[in-house]
Amino acid sequence: MSAFFAFLHHVAAFTLVAALAVEYVLIKDELTIGSARKLQLVDLAFGVSAGIVLVIGLLRVFYFEKGPSYYFHSAPFIGKLSLFVLIGLLSIYPTVQFLSWRTSLKAGRAPVVEPRTLRAIRAVIHLELAGVVFILLFAALMARGIGLMA
Fold first, then answer.
1. Rounded CA gap, 118 and 42, in Å?
2. Spatial contact of 109 and 34, defined as CB atoms under 8 Å apart
3. Is the pLDDT reported for residue 147 higher than 90?
4. Please, which contacts does 44-51 make with residues 24 or more away whose CB atoms are closer than 8 Å?
5. How far is CA 141 from CA 58, 62, 127, 144, in A?
6. Would you give the DSSP letter of residue 150?
7. How far apart are CA 103 and CA 113, in angstroms?
8. Beta bridge partner(s), residue 52
9. What HEC string does 25-36 produce?
10. What tens digit of pLDDT does each residue of 66-108 get?
């Protein structure tokens, strides 16, 4: 059962990273009706996968792996979890922006977004991607038992 939950956790994590990469690519070009709709769908996939990563990850910590006392005494785990929460908080801004486009898209128009807002969305996605890189580093450290606190 533990291996199955590890598998689910990894599939959801890879889906999250893929969705974030697709957002990064889609937001670089000029917004069209099609790209705006794709961004909304990809952002939904990002959010769902993040929720699955969190739920499965917590199940693994509390029921299927080494237990909470091990993980909460691991500096890389605490760093990984903290970055995950930070990425989740950062993702609120692009999500709110993408959702604000619904009216335009329903009317068959591409959303009109200020250049400054687009730059801010891009910057947030860049920060999220950087955070993912550090999560991967912390995961590798954690898997090797590096950073355990007494």
1. 17
2. no
3. no
4. 45/15, 45/19, 46/16, 46/19, 46/20, 46/91, 47/91, 47/95, 49/12, 49/13, 49/15, 49/16, 49/19, 50/16, 50/84, 50/87, 50/88, 50/91
5. 19, 20, 21, 5
6. -
7. 13
8. none
9. HHHHCCCCHHHH
10. 889 889 999 999 999 999 999 999 999 999 999 999 999 999 9
On whether the CB atoms of residues 31 and 122 are closer than 8 A, the answer is: no
Query: Which of these, 56, 71, 55, 45, lies nearest to 4 by C-alpha position?
Result: 56
pTM: predicted TM-score of the whole model, two decimal places? 0.91
- Tally of helices (H runs) and strands (E runs) in the chain: 7, 0
Q: ∠ CA(85), CA(91), CA(97), 5° rounding? A: 155
Neighbours of 78 (CB within 10 A): 16
Residue 56: name the closest of 5, 112, 92, 122 by CA. Answer: 5
Copy the structure tokens of residue 68.
């909470």
Residue with tokens 């990894």: 10
If one counts every other C-beta atom within 10 angstroms of the C-beta of residue 15, the result is: 17
